Amino acid sequence: MGFQGSSTTTVSEVKNKATAVNDELPPLREQIIWKNVLRFGFFHVLYIKGLTLLPYVKGWSIVWIFVLHFFGSLGITAGVHRLWSHRSYKASTAMRIFLMLCNSMTYENSILHWARDHRVHHKFTDTNADPHSAGRGFFFSHIGWLLVKKNHRTKEEGDKINYDDLYQDKVVMFQYRYYGLTVLVCWLLFPLLVPMLAWQETFMNSLFVCVFLRHGMILHATYCINSFSHFFGMKPYDRHMKPTENHLTNFVIAGEGFHNYHHSFPYDYSASEFRIFNVSTLFIDFCAFLGLASHRRRVSPEAIKRRIQRTGDGSHKG
């Protein structure tokens, strides 16, 4: 089934893991992928252009970018994160196709690559084997890791993890094989054409605001999980790890800011102790009500309480 995480983490395990994979790496300047630097730099120019046009777009276009952001967030949170990376619940074919399309809307790499990186991240959190280790600095964990080559530790340890479930998922592999097509339709054409046809938005406004600016929003919202949620916040479940409870991340991307909880219990489909404040959890629950989702994995209140008492920082309010 692939990586499910562990419900318990001891201080000695964290130290041993860090020691095992934190050998010295080459300076980041020696690993730069300049074409990625240029590509991300160019995209950020387009995001800024979209920001300057924001006051001139029609009201429905503002609504549209937030609708797209919401569904794109679901493609990340309920889709590639909780379903495909952690297998924390099961989804019907129809739901998996829907989440795949939502994921393609974000243009954040294929489900296959995203989930593979994320499993390595969880097994070797904030060590040199972590693709976006917070141990290498805030900028690196936010976006810098996409501008450099994967180091040898990430490759070596990543090759030891089982990804068979991803390769056997027909929806995942369809997107992987036709990723360019799914991105063209879901990321570019759909967000671009709907405003132009439905409420006569101009081509330039639709392109730069509904496509590019909206893309920048979902990218940096996702990146906040790797950066802000590993640097700022409380640690009510495990004070020995970097991941924190960060409400900024909850706000920008559908309830993923309960990060100290998530790294303490990575197999919980809710990624949080509190379902009511978690949009992605409510979506999965609604899909379960419709018969589209099942086998939602959850941590017992007793296990949560024991973890809080054993490793929490005392900030839990329950």
Verbal overview:
- The radius of gyration is 20 Å and the shape is globular.
- The protein has a two-stranded antiparallel sheet with strand order 1-2.
- Helices cover 58% and strands 1% of the residues.
- The chain has one domain.
- With 318 residues, the chain is mainly alpha-helical.
- It is a multi-pass membrane protein.
- It is found in: Membrane.
- It holds the Pfam family FA_desaturase.
- Its cofactor is Fe(2+).
- GO terms for molecular function: iron ion binding; stearoyl-CoA 9-desaturase activity.
Shape call:
globular
Task: Kindly give the count of domains.
Answer: 1
Uncertain stretches of 5 or more adjacent residues: 1-12
Radius of gyration equals 20 Å
As a percent range, the share of helical residues equals 55-70%
What percentage of amino acids are in beta strands? under 5%
Which sequence of SSEs, written as H and E, runs from N to C?
HHHEHHHHHHHHHHHEH
**Contiguous helical run count:** 15
Q: How would you classify the quaternary structure?
A: single chain
Q: What is the topology, as strand order, of the major beta sheet?
A: 1-2
Quick rundown:
With 318 residues, this protein is an all-alpha fold. It is built from 15 helices and two strands.
List the helices and strands and how they pair.
Blueprint: H1 11-21, H2 34-53, H3 59-85, E1 90-91, H4 93-104, H5 111-123, H6 138-142, H7 152-158, H8 164-167, H9 170-177, H10 179-198, H11 203-226, H12 247-252, H13 259-264, H14 279-289, E2 293-294, H15 301-311
Antiparallel strand pairs: 1-2
Helix pairs in contact: 2-11, 3-4, 3-5, 3-11, 3-14, 10-11
